[in-house]
């Protein structure tokens, strides 16, 4: 059973199946896999609009699935400056394998 919310560092993310109908709001998302009741980040990204970024085929979803990703964790973050800051922090701490351009 998947919990509705998950903490990544101190941030609360809602867990969604990949075929979710997304809203037109900005925020952060994590493609994640669940193993032994522990979530693993495969890719961390930010979006000005979840609807436009996640509703179509995201270029990292296929590679994330190959690494075991089954769900999208999303958190609404209205301000772009906050999205940039939190995304950087999550990538630095979580070291997702598909965020190679940030390493």
SSE blueprint:
Blueprint: E1 5-8, E2 11-16, E3 27-35, E4 38-47, H1 50-54, H2 61-66, E5 71-76, H3 80-94
Antiparallel strand pairs: 1-2, 2-5, 3-4, 3-5
What would you note in describing this structure?
By secondary structure, this protein is an alpha+beta fold. The chain has one domain (about 5-100): GIY-YIG endonuclease (3-Layer(aba) Sandwich), CATH 3.40.1440. The protein has three helices and five strands, in the order ββββααβα. Strands 1-2-5-3-4 form a five-stranded antiparallel sheet. The termini are far apart. The model has no long low-confidence stretch (mean pLDDT about 95).
Short description:
The protein is α+β, with helices and mostly antiparallel strands and 103 residues long. It contains three helices and five strands.
Distance N to C terminus: 33 Å
**Major sheet, described briefly?**
5 strands, antiparallel
Proper CATH architecture: 3-Layer(aba) Sandwich
Please tally the β strands and state the result: 5
Descriptive keywords:
single chain, 103 residues, alpha+beta, GIY-YIG endonuclease, 25% helix
């Amino acid at each position: 059973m998947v919990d509705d919310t998950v903490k990544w560092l101190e941030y609360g993310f809602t867990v969604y199946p990949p075929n979710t109908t997304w809203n037109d709001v900005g925020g952060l998302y994590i493609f994640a896999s669940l193993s032994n009741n522990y979530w693993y980040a495969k890719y961390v990204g930010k979006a000005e609009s979840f609807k436009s970024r996640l509703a179509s085929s995201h270029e990292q979803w296929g590679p994330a699935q190959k690494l075991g990703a089954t769900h999208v964790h999303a958190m609404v973050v209205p301000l772009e400056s906050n999205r940039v800051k939190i995304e950087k922090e999550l990538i630095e701490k979580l070291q997702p394998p598909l965020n190679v351009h940030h390493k």
